[in-house]
Write a structure and sequence with these properties.
The radius of gyration is 19 Å and the shape is globular. The protein folds into two domains: 5-127, Rossmann fold (3-Layer(aba) Sandwich), CATH 3.40.50; 134-295, Tumour Suppressor Smad4 (Sandwich), CATH 2.60.200.40. Strand 1, helix 1 (26-36) and strand 2 (40-45) form a beta-alpha-beta unit. It has a 15-stranded mixed β-sheet that branches. It is built from eight helices and 15 strands. By secondary structure, it is of the alpha+beta class. Helices cover 27% and strands 33% of the residues. The structure holds adenosine-5'-triphosphate. Adenosine-5'-triphosphate binds at residues 15-19, 45-48, 71-75, 96-99, 158, 204, 279-280. One of its GO terms (molecular function) is ATP binding. Keywords: ATP-binding, Kinase, Lipid biosynthesis, Lipid metabolism, Magnesium, Metal-binding, Nucleotide-binding, Phospholipid biosynthesis, Phospholipid metabolism, Transferase. This is DAGKc domain-containing protein. Residues 5-135 form the DAGKc domain.
């Protein structure tokens, strides 16, 4: 649905701590652009707790139609999860460390362009998913990248540089975890460095793991990287990503990277491999039921 500015009322939620970019002028930038387009708008801060009941009541009482998240994937996850039931359209001004969902949706990296898009773009239905009862929009990881996410969260700095440092440090000590995956009538037993379950086709910063992933195909893209020689692993991963070839899940390919799609899967995680949801470290679980939520929320994107 193309955005009709006359009937809109927007809440911009700014995360004061996300990413590394300066946000001093952001409040003025978004309010000036709203004024230019004749749209009523207010600015509020995001909250660390993820409790957006105060925003939900303002939407209901004051008739706000859109919520624009100025932050990263963690903020997008918390805000969309808390407010999806209200039926507002969501926008993103990508100001996090990775911005995977925003870039997968072709939202521009440039802040002024991303702000302009809020008033010229099109709201499109977008899938999300549930991991047991937890909400995800973009990417869930078990194993290596989750360990990096947990260590990243302990660092004083944010941003890509800190993330890369943590990835390199963890690479040399990386271990495997045992998993059992039940998917599309197959049961896969594997010792894996990591498993990614993706709705978006990138982690952010244009780094992709699941090149065929689409935000609105009703499917999740699963990438399984099993135990293999660490000297070979980066090349095998690059080859897999470049080929982007999807294959049905295989029960008898213990040393091959697997890439397949499914609307749901069950995952047993007896070694309690660490987990992240949309880049935020979360407490892991021994059993995970993962289900797509097709066409879960509306996201403002370029009109094409
Ligand atoms: N007002 C606030 N004060 C402190 N922390 C906040 C506030 N609002 C949100 N947060 C926290 O910010 C974190 C999310 O940051 P966000 O995802 O926006 O940026 P990022 O982590 O730098 O980027 P990305 O997720 O793209 O890597 C969450 O842990 C959230 O609880």
């Amino acid at each position: 649905m193309r955005v009709d500015n006359h009937s809109r009322k927007i809440i911009f939620l700014i995360n004061p701590i996300s990413g590394t970019r300066n946000k001093t002028d952001l409040r003025k930038l978004v309010l000036d652009e709203a004024l230019k387009h004749g749209v009523a708008a207010i600015v509020l801060p995001t909250v660390a707790s993820g409790d957006y009941a105060f925003v939900a009541s303002r939407i209901e009482e004051e008739g706000f139609t859109d919520v624009v998240i100025c932050g990263g994937d963690g903020s997008v996850n918390q805000v969309v999860n808390a407010l999806r039931h209200t039926g507002v359209h969501f926008g993103i001004i990508p100001l996090g460390s990775g911005n995977g969902l925003a870039y997968s949706a072709n939202i521009p990296k440039s802040t002024p362009k991303a702000i302009e898009l809020i008033f010229t773009g099109k709201a499109r239905k977008t899938d999300a998913y549930l991991i047991n009862d937890r909400f995800a929009c973009m990417l869930v990881g078990l194993g290596f990248d989750a360990k990096v996410a947990h260590d990243f969260a302990q660092q004083p700095g944010r941003g890509l540089l800190t993330y890369t440092q943590q990835s390199l440090k963890n690479y040399f000590t990386a271990r495997t975890w045992h998993f059992e995956i039940v998917v599309n009538d197959h049961v896969i037993q594997t010792d894996a460095f990591f498993i990614s379950i993706a709705n978006s086709n990138q982690f952010g910063n244009q780094f992709t793991i699941a090149p065929k992933a689409s935000l609105n195909d009703g499917l999740l893209d699963i990438v399984l990287v099993p135990r293999m020689n660490k000297a070979i692993l980066p090349f095998a991963l690059i080859q897999q990503v470049n080929s982007g070839k999807l294959k049905p899940p295989a029960e008898d390919a213990p040393n091959t990277i697997q890439y397949f799609q499914a609307a749901k899967l069950q995952l047993r995680n007896p070694d309690l491999a660490p987990m992240h949801i949309d880049g935020e470290p979360v407490e892991t679980e021994a059993f995970l039921q993962i289900n797509i939520l097709p066409r879960c929320f509306s996201l403002i994107q370029p009109s094409l």
